[in-house]
Amino acid sequence: MGQAAWDRTIGTAQKTLALEDIPDYLANGQDPHHLPWLPTLARLELLCHRSLTAVIPSREELTSLCLNPSLELVTLGWRNLPPLVTAISEERLAQVTAGEEMVAVWREPSSNRLRCTAAKPEQLLAIKLVAEEISPEQAARTAGVSVAVIDDLLSAAIHSGILLSPSSRLRRPTDRAAAEVFTLQWHLTQSCDLSCKHCYDRSHRADFPFDRALGLMQELRDFCRQRFVRPQVTLTGGNPLLHPRFFELYQAAADHGLMIAILGNASDRATLEGMMAIQPPVYYQVSLEGLEQHNDQIRGAGNYRRTVAFLKLLTELGIPNLVMLTLTKANLNQVLPLGRELAGITGGLTFNRLALFGEGAKLALPSIEEYQDFLNDYVAALPEITVLALKDSLLNCVFEQQERPLFGGCAGFGCGAAFNFLSILSDGEVHACRKLPSPLGNIREQSLETIYGSELATRYRSGSTACIGCDLRPVCGGCMAVTASFGLDPFSNKDPYCTRKQ
Length: 502
What we know:
Largest sheet: 9 strands, mixed
Radius of gyration: 29 Å
Number of strands: 14
Distance between the termini: 68 Å
Strand order of the largest sheet: 11-10-9-8-7-6-12-13-14
Helix content: 25-40%
Number of helices: 19
Shape: elongated
């Protein structure tokens, strides 16, 4: 208004006038110099003040998805007023026109930044769903859309701060680490077009039944909703693409609002484009076991070149991709050269140590000394070979020695077995980790909630008692699969390759 206009309009009344009364006071005034929309702007500024002074609870205090207490919704009789709240310019003044506009005002919880903007339809729908306690599934049925569409608009509203979500309830009992994503590594089929020499399991198992798969997807949604985390399925096998109803399962996973990743073998463009048309995978992981000659000895003649060509295709189509290597004594010295060959071809190369189960029991692991030297070389090569990624938790021992920042370990929280991760085999058998025999139940006979809450699952996610007191435990815990494959008890012995002194 400017000081002169303020003094002329409000005058001495400002001493007794409450903030809430200013919009009406301006509306009832007869000052001919007033812009007609000035009382409406004052009303909007009052809502901004309320939003700035509202108390926003922390995520830890929340028990359910709720509206941000600082949120104010108002329908105004003038359009394009929100930009004037932050700055006035001739251009913005000229854009104010008569007409109804619904405006949302709120304060972002993370930054305390005030937001004042015309409300978008998807924001209003998210507000309605939470205010009226309408489930995403019910909203999707009513609108005739995939539940993923509803999930996305709710996620966007949470990200913007219009909605508040409680903190993750997926917490490890030992160190209180909280995960934001829960993953089912889902082995759809044992069928495979390869016959790798280090395969963990070549036993015959039936393909996963389609009807149970649909029910399990809903169970996964409910499981994750109760813990305020995002659900992901990582489809694998065998080769998951060989499941006779793969695309139906892929479509169903997308329809259930699940993030989808693929652990599989090389395929063709048409298959990838079919996935992309439904929902892009969050990533596609393939395996290589070293340079071409060694890889093809393990995975079959021609596999190396087919896989590299496939990685280039994935990158061309914009599908995030990475390469996993199973580390043995024979390929220890090929990891860094392979990283150099894959530079610019894939988004990441990482490794898992071989667990001596199944066909892998016929192969050999490096000595502890060889492995420690390898870890040091791997860390030293990180700046040069940028494709190298981090997975083996024991890399944190090297980072600690070098006083470098730690990373999250194998699953982001050290070992993820039965914590933010479960493995389901094609016959329904559930394991804490696919790399070792760790049966927890059968999903065809039990619910996901029952299996995850079992005493044995709790033991797996608690990790080894040998790691109690170790400062690295929240991001390490070693590899229970490797420990067990040495004939040791993974619940009481530490990883045999761990040399850290507690």
